[in-house]
Every structure is written in structure tokens, then in C-alpha cells.
Automatic annotation (TrEMBL):
HAMAP family documented for this protein: Phe_tRNA_synth_alpha1
Subunit relationships: Tetramer of two alpha and two beta subunits.
Cofactor detail note: Binds 2 magnesium ions per tetramer.
Chief site of localization: cytoplasm
Family: Belongs to the class-II aminoacyl-tRNA synthetase family. Phe-tRNA synthetase alpha subunit type 1 subfamily.
Gene assigned in the entry: pheS
Annotated localization: Cytoplasm
Matching SUPFAM superfamilies: Class II aaRS and biotin synthetases, tRNA-binding arm
UniProt binding sites for Mg(2+): 261
Species of the source: Aestuariispira insulae
Name used for this protein in its record: Phenylalanine--tRNA ligase alpha subunit
Length: 361
């Protein structure tokens, strides 16, 4: 190779190494290898040489062309790598930073407790049943063995709706319990039945411990051989899971409800020391729910044969058990829509209740 070609090589490789960015590098490429480039010009001169010299010079030029192209490409890759690294550095994300706006929202303790109840009973093989909040007299009272003039009707402090004539319509009530849902289920489905009915209920009652609207969950199991032992086992399993206490002490006290016979109120073991309630320890008792074997009249009213089918039912207030589990002292605060209260007592959405992940520790 002649000195001139060596000089050309030296000059071009220097240009390549001096190019400061992709644009400058491309200019070097055009100046060397483009249509009017220096190597291209040398190629064009080959025609004037004799064959032997042309062959020799052609080979040298091709080699030079390859070397320069390779140098340009290597520098290009280096620029691209540097640009990518710069971009990655600029867009670095600190994954350990806490999320911001999403953390603001809270699940209301009633929603959380409701979800927990559904998760536990779901795991036990119950399905969730739903029904209307405006009911007729039959589903709210008569089918539940509460006939007209029965004192329980007064006790329920029922909200009646107004008829078209402006008078009270005694056949149109805001349901006073979710038992209406169980009645509808028994009317429409064949046993075995295993459902829970969580829902809003209404009673014209308002003081420290009562609000006109409150949430209830009731359960119903109907089959051919269901007995009180099943009720006991079911309540033990549910209450153990809900209060997260193994073998939570339970006490059944004989009671009376028109829709169950026999009926029992259920207490759980607790201690009350220095005004602090602890569930599952101590030798005090706390009433938690009502229960019993479904009254034969109720089974009959739903079109089933009480000689063939029997079962158990129970009901509890969701606000009440939420207050006990989460130490919320005042029932009425559930309905104040106070954001500070919700921030304190509410739950992060990502802590949604599930038995698979375990209820809250
Ligand atoms: C059907 C048959 C029987 C559901 C029952 C109770 C006892 C009970 C109260 C607890 C507190 C309501 O929220 S509360 O005020 N409930 O004491 N509930 S037995 O019995 C039924 C339900 C449906 C067809």
C-alpha cells in the first residue's frame, strides 16, 4: 500500500475517533464512503491504471474501505450505548418509594368486616344470597311465623312506605332483617340450602346503640338431617376464624325468637380489665348473636315439608361485631362520613380480606 493510502487511512481513522456525536460521525462516513467521498474518489481513479496496478490498488482500497467502515460502526455502537445508559440513568425509578395518591383511599370497616364474613363462610361452603330492601308483609313477617298482632311486629319498629293514596301501606316495608332473603331462597330453591344473607336492614330506632339503618348477616342451612350440633360447630368455626382465636369459648343461652325453635343467644368468652375488652380470654361473657333451629311453621310457609326438612339459622349485626373486633367504641361514627375517622379505622384496599392470605393478624 502506498504512503498516500496510509495517510488517507490515518486521516480518516482520526476523523472517526474525533467525531463527537452520531451526526458528526455520519458526516465523516459521507466524506469517506459517500458518493463524493474520498475513498469513492480513489475507486473512481482505478479505471486509469493498468490491469496489474488496478488489481493491487483495488484490493488495497477495498481493505481500507472495510477498515474505515468498521471503525465508523464501532464508534456508532459506542455512541448508542452511551445514549441508552444516559436515558436509563435519567429515567431511573426508585421502586422503594411509597405509592402516593393510591394510599389515600380506605375501605370502610363495615366493608372490610363484610368481606371477611363472606370469605370465612365462603370457605365453609356457603354462598351469598341477596334480595330487595323494600319488602312485603309476607316475606318480612308472616312467613317468619310473625302473624298480625304478634308483639314482635311492634318490637321491630318498622318503617312503612306510603301508598299512592298518601296513606301508610302496611304491605310495603323497609326490611327489618335479612331473613326475607332466606324466605325467598327457600321458596325458590330445593334443599340442601347453605346460604348467608348479608345486607342493609332498617328499624325506626335511634340512640347510642341503634341506628335507623344497620347491616346484618344471617345464615341458613336446610337439609334432611341438620341438627343443633351442626349449628354449634358452624358457629364455633366462624367465630374462631373471625376473632382469630382458636377454640373461642362459646355459651348458648336459651332464648325466644318466633322464627326458631329452640332458640339460643350466643355469648363469647371475654375479659374486661380497666375498661379494655379482650375477646377469647377471661371469665366474662359477651352476647354476640341469636340463633336456633328453623321453626317448622317457617319451613311450611316456604312450601317445604317440615317432616322432611329441617335446619338452623342465625343472625348478627355487622356493625356490632366490627366494633368488637376493631375496638370502635361508638356505633354512630360508622355513619358520620368523617375522613379522619376513616383514615384511622379504615383499611388499605390491598389488605382485602381473604382466608387464603389469612385475615388480618
Ligand atoms: C329464617 C329462619 C330463621 C335468623 C335469626 C336471630 C336469631 C337474631 C339478631 C341478631 C342481632 C338480629 O342484627 S340483630 O338485631 N338476630 O337474633 N336471627 S335467629 O333466623 C332465621 C332467619 C331466616 C328463614
Amino acid at each position: 500500500m502506498t504512503d498516500t493510502l496510509d495517510q488517507l487511512r490515518g486521516a480518516l481513522l482520526e476523523d472517526v475517533s474525533k467525531a463527537e456525536n452520531l451526526e458528526a460521525l455520519d458526516a465523516v462516513r459521507v466524506a469517506a464512503l459517500g458518493k463524493k467521498g474520498r475513498i469513492t474518489a480513489e475507486m473512481k481513479n482505478l479505471g486509469g491504471l493498468d490491469p496489474e496496478a488496478r488489481k493491487q490498488r483495488g484490493q488495497e482500497l477495498n481493505q481500507l474501505k472495510g477498515e474505515v467502515a468498521e471503525a465508523i460502526n464501532a464508534r456508532k455502537v459506542a455512541f448508542e450505548d452511551a445514549a441508552l445508559n444516559e436515558q436509563l440513568e435519567a429515567e431511573r425509578i426508585d421502586v422503594s418509594l411509597p405509592i402516593r395518591p393510591e394510599e389515600m383511599g380506605r375501605l370502610h370497616p363495615i366493608s372490610q368486616t363484610w368481606d371477611e364474613i363472606v370469605a370465612i363462610f365462603g370457605e365453609m361452603g356457603f354462598t351469598v344470597a341477596d334480595g330487595p330492601e323494600i319488602e312485603d308483609d309476607f316475606h318480612n313477617f308472616t312467613a317468619l311465623n310473625i302473624p298480625a298482632e304478634h308483639p314482635a311486629r311492634q318490637e321491630h319498629d318498622t318503617f312503612y312506605l306510603q301508598g299512592e293514596d298518601g296513606q301508610i301501606d302496611y304491605n310495603s316495608v323497609l326490611r327489618t332483617h335479612t331473613s326475607t332473603v332466606q324466605i325467598r331462597t327457600m321458596q325458590n330453591e330445593q334443599p340442601p340450602i347453605r346460604i348467608i344473607a348479608p345486607g342493609r336492614t332498617y328499624r325506626s330506632d335511634s340512640d347510642m346503640t341503634h341506628t335507623p339503618m344497620f347491616s346484618q348477616v344471617e345464615a341458613l342451612v336446610i337439609d334432611k338431617n341438620t341438627h343443633f350440633g351442626h349449628l354449634k360447630g358452624c358457629l364455633q368455626d366462624f367465630l374462631d376464624a373471625f376473632f382469630e382465636v382458636k377454640d373461642l369459648p362459646l355459651r348458648f343461652r336459651a332464648s325466644y325468637f318466633p322464627f326458631t325453635e329452640p332458640s339460643a343467644e350466643v355469648d363469647i368468652g371475654c375479659s374486661r380489665k380497666d375498661g379494655t375488652l379482650k375477646i377469647g380470654e377471661g371469665d366474662d361473657w359477651l352476647e354476640i348473636l341469636g340463633s336456633g333451629m328453623v321453626h317448622p311453621n317457617v319451613i311450611k310457609a316456604c312450601g317445604l315439608d317440615p317432616e322432611e326438612y329441617q335446619g338452623f339459622a342465625f343472625g348478627m349485626g355487622i356493625e356490632r361485631i366490627a366494633m368488637l373486633k376493631y375496638g370502635i367504641p361508638d356505633l354512630r361514627t360508622f355513619f358520620d362520613a368523617d375522613m379522619r375517622w376513616l383514615k384511622h379505622h379504615g383499611f388499605l384496599p390491598l389488605e382485602a380480606a381473604s382466608l387464603i392470605r389469612g385475615l388480618r393478624p
